[in-house]
Design goal:
By secondary structure, this protein is mainly alpha-helical. 43% of the residues lie in helices and 8% in strands. The protein folds into two domains: 255 residues, no CATH class; 157 residues, no CATH class.
């Protein structure tokens, strides 16, 4: 069983990484099977999305399969399928652990985090994506680890190429062409919070050197959610009278479930890894199907055999924290309906801001598939509530006119899936001209770049001929750009391509976006 579990973990991790790499533009406006399918099987995100937004994407009901598996086989997802759990397992195996290592009894913390997230979502505050393991892993790989891998790999091959050693260069170019087709991204992505997000992810992995599967044991809210469900599972661990309490099972237990202590056994912490069964010298451990006991019969919240001793005061404190967090995070100017952040440009198809924040789980998939790398993670532009949600920064990359990939990968419907015809009619902002920096206005120099790159069928940027004088008094005919308020969709390509590179003379703000009735320049 131990070997079967390792094979299962390896298969699911390979599938996850394969789908992650495939979640990228391939030259057509269509994706096959993006990595969001792992999020579709995540029951915690389904639950919090229903609680906060009172709706969920249809694909999310695949998470019912995870729930059924947990009710039958227990918390096997954590031990057999979770890609982040597998990575934690791999990192933890790098350190040789002494037998009878004293483990921290912090398993309750993840349940307090779960309670906090569930209660806050009841009051429409969607924070689960920050700590959900699948969302966290996709975001960390998309924003930090994968760009770092791309950059490092290209740097190595560039160095080999520059060495000009013929045999070595030919070999490296052959390998590089294979990697470009199957592993490396089409172009090198860059993200404004790459270092921050990557450091947090590496810190989580590094905790496994403090204690095996530290995140899974003490912090993972999805693990806590599945742990509560596993109390009703029919596959149970049992110990015969032949047990000598030698402690061999405790040394190999991945979940720190106290397998050597019959009275203190914690079934909610069992990953069903079967290590205790394999290692028991007396063959006293076995797994079998038994009718599930009621929570009261199993010790309930106070403890006892199989009980989950969380403490009523701490549970109430966690619930109160979830309630208090709502006004605490929203009692700021960003929450005022009349306050508009001009640079908060959301992807096309995004829901109205409040509804968007109720659904967005900050997974980062939309940023990964953005062709121009224009979608970036927010920090505080949308408040703490909106941290790591997508924002378009035109100076980094514009919104490609004939691209709808971000809506295709969004797992929760925070970004609606649009057809190309629908996308062409959606406004995400409006271009504004800074006459003090525009060459035809400020410096009597001809420039028509913004009009040339404008993608709308009828150009949203048009010219008005004007006669201006240079410093010597010579008259010069220039074409001064104007923006058509009705045609501009705010894609940002004019800002991205403006030759005034430090601070573009034309820039895009969120005003006029289709998703908002208040953020308007002109009244209807």
């Amino acid at each position: 069983m131990k070997n079967l579990r390792r094979i299962s973990q390896g298969i699911f991790l390979i599938i996850f990484l394969f789908l992650f790499i495939q979640t990228e533009a391939k030259g057509i406006d269509e994706l096959g099977y993006p990595v969001k399918i792992f999020l579709d099987f995540d029951p915690l995100i389904l639950t919090t999305t229903i609680l906060s937004a009172h709706a969920a994407a249809k694909a999310f009901y695949l998470s019912a399969i995870t729930i059924i598996i947990t009710l039958v086989f227990g918390r096997m997802f954590c031990g057999w399928a979770c890609p982040l759990g597998t990575l934690n397992n791999i990192v933890g195996s790098l350190k040789k652990w002494r037998t009878n290592t004293v483990s921290r009894n912090w398993y309750r913390v993840k349940y307090y985090i779960l309670i906090f997230l569930l209660v806050s979502s009841v009051f429409s505050l969607q924070l689960v994506g920050i700590m959900d393991p699948i969302s966290l892993l996709i975001r960390s790989l998309s924003v930090s680890i994968y760009p770092l891998f791309n950059y490092g790999t290209r740097a190595v091959f560039d160095a080999v190429y520059n060495s000009d050693i013929k045999g070595l260069v030919n070999l490296s170019e052959s390998i590089y062409s294979i990697l470009k087709k199957g592993v490396l991204s089409f172009q090198q992505p860059f993200y404004v919070q790459s270092t921050f997000v990557g450091a947090l992810f590496l810190f989580i992995l590094g905790l496994n050197l403090v204690e095996k599967r530290f995140w899974c044991r003490h912090l993972c809210p999805l693990g806590a959610f599945l742990g509560l469900l596993s109390r009703f599972s029919i596959l149970k661990r049992s110990v015969s009278e032949g047990c000598t309490s030698c402690g061999a099972c405790a040394n190999v237990c991945q979940g720190n479930a106290n397998p050597d202590k019959k009275e203190e056994w914690r079934d909610t912490e069992c990953f069903y890894c079967w290590n205790c069964d394999d290692v028991c010298p007396q063959n006293a451990v076995s797994f079998g199907f038994h009718p599930p006991l009621s929570p009261l019969a199993k010790g309930g919240i106070k403890g006892g055999y199989g009980g989950l001793d969380l403490g009523r005061r701490r549970v109430i404190t966690s619930m109160a924290s979830g309630v208090i967090a709502v006004p605490l995070l929203r009692a700021n100017p960003l929450s005022k309906s009349e306050f508009i952040n001009q640079r908060l440009i959301r992807p096309p198809g995004s829901l109205e801001e409040k509804e968007f924040l109720k659904r967005c789980v900050k997974c980062g998939e939309c940023m990964k598939v953005c062709i121009t790398n224009g979608l970036q993670p927010t920090l505080l532009e949308a408040g703490i509530e909106g941290i790591w949600s997508p924002i378009l920064i035109p100076k980094i990359g514009y919104c490609e006119y004939r691209c709808t990939l971000c809506g295709q990968v969004c797992p929760t419907g925070a970004i609606k899936r649009l057809t190309l015809e629908e996308k062409a009619k959606v406004k995400i902002g409006l271009a504004m001209i800074d006459k003090g920096r525009c060459l035809p206005y400020a410096h009597a120099r001809p420039c028509i770049v913004c009009e040339e790159v404008c993608p709308t069928p009828k150009k949203a940027i048009w010219f008005e001929k004007a006669i201006v004088k240079d410093r010597n008094g010579k008259e010069v005919v220039v074409q001064q750009p104007r923006v058509d308020l009705e045609l501009c969709i705010g894609c940002g390509i004019c800002e991205a391509k403006c030759p005034v590179v430090d601070k573009p003379a034309i820039y895009v703000t969120s005003i006029g976006e289709s998703r908002s009735k208040e953020n308007r320049l002109l009244m209807d």
